[in-house]
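> tool_call: predict_assembly(chains=four)
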Amino acid sequence: MNKTLTLNVRERDLLLNTPLLKRLSGAAAERMLDSVSVVSIESRDIIFGQGSQAKNFYTILSGFVRIYTLSRDGRETDIGVYGPGDAIAIDAMFGDGTYHFNAQAAEAVLLATFNIAEMKRLSSESPEVAVALMSVLSSNLGQAMDCVADDRMHTAPQRLANFLLQNCPPTGGSIRFRLPFQKSLLAGKLGLAPEALSRAFSSLRSAGVAVHGRVIEINDVEALRNV
Amino acid sequence: MNKTLTLNVRERDLLLNTPLLKRLSGAAAERMLDSVSVVSIESRDIIFGQGSQAKNFYTILSGFVRIYTLSRDGRETDIGVYGPGDAIAIDAMFGDGTYHFNAQAAEAVLLATFNIAEMKRLSSESPEVAVALMSVLSSNLGQAMDCVADDRMHTAPQRLANFLLQNCPPTGGSIRFRLPFQKSLLAGKLGLAPEALSRAFSSLRSAGVAVHGRVIEINDVEALRNV
DNA sequence: CGTTGGGTTGAGCGCGATCAAGCGTGGTGG
DNA sequence: CCACCACGCTTGATCGCGCTCAACCCAACG
């Protein structure tokens, strides 16, 4: 967990294209950037733990982060997987000042760190910043509600088909593309055991989906839409 | 669906104690109140429909509202149930300008209506208002994520036990209280078919839970916590 | 080579959806 | 006043989905 105190050009550029910052005026963006630091996290490291003091929230510059929770008997349940551009733990700016979930790097990850106290101050001075935060919160809320709906009304193959359709290049017809992360992580994101994901893939074979390691081949995108 | 254009004293009071308004200064609260109107909705009426133009968001003054979505085959899936003090469709302030879900009055409902365009203007002028909105968005986000976690890691009886524990008076030991709404609505909130809720109740009988219509009797609250 | 880690496959089973029937209460009308 | 019905809920029977445990496969790597 090597903290890099300064923002290099590449990181700065990534950050400015994040949903949180990309609509800000130059002045507001500059004020945000002033209080950001960048950390790089190694694969499998814990970013924050549920119940611990919430000092920062984060946006992801590169890599994927798994948000999960522990049940009393020690089992882990995934709640979401977030990638480049996404914000995590923004909701910790409000509430009781602790994180409510765990976050773990699913691979090597680069994070932009926003100090919560500072962001509170900044957002109560700059409506522009406040609106950006609201917008991100709102989009995360929509995502979470979609997730509940998806879980409740679709079977495993349907959820997988949904995911594939949302994560493949928008060229219709026949496609070949690469999964953005490990299958076991995808299983968690979809609320499935890894074995169930595997079976979902093989049940989609009849709908024209072929799997070669992380590379997915879809014969007919339209056909997949009707699962 | 009888729109009452003015806020009477009682409604005004309810509204000022809502999470969205209760921390606002008098001046900011006054500005919010100026652009609020109140509508009363009859049981089973649709408040808004998914895909339709989002002109307002709402907070609930009394009654319960069911948020749900339709799958392609016409089946309804519940996503959440919201009650007095809760805000619904705040996330429609951002995004594509349409509602993403359906909202239906589960009973006679009184709503405070906030015009979205006006609230956008207000929140970009008053950081205080923006912070209040963020805080509510954030709490709704937390709720939704909790819901995903709850769905994924707990069985029906466990989710029901959770709900009962969160909705009973905080006096320990032995309690008797009334469900806030119909069981069929509760089933939807917990992501269950009504039959499954019924069975969950009877499986909790062995944990000291007795049901008399809408009245629930819990022998030992602590015992219920260990389900 | 053996090991390790990610993925697949198989067998068994429990949870919860579904369909169908039955129950109890409150409301309505003859 | 009572027969009837409507509605919310319960109970039973069945079934399919997805979890669990276990074995196996395979590629990467030392």
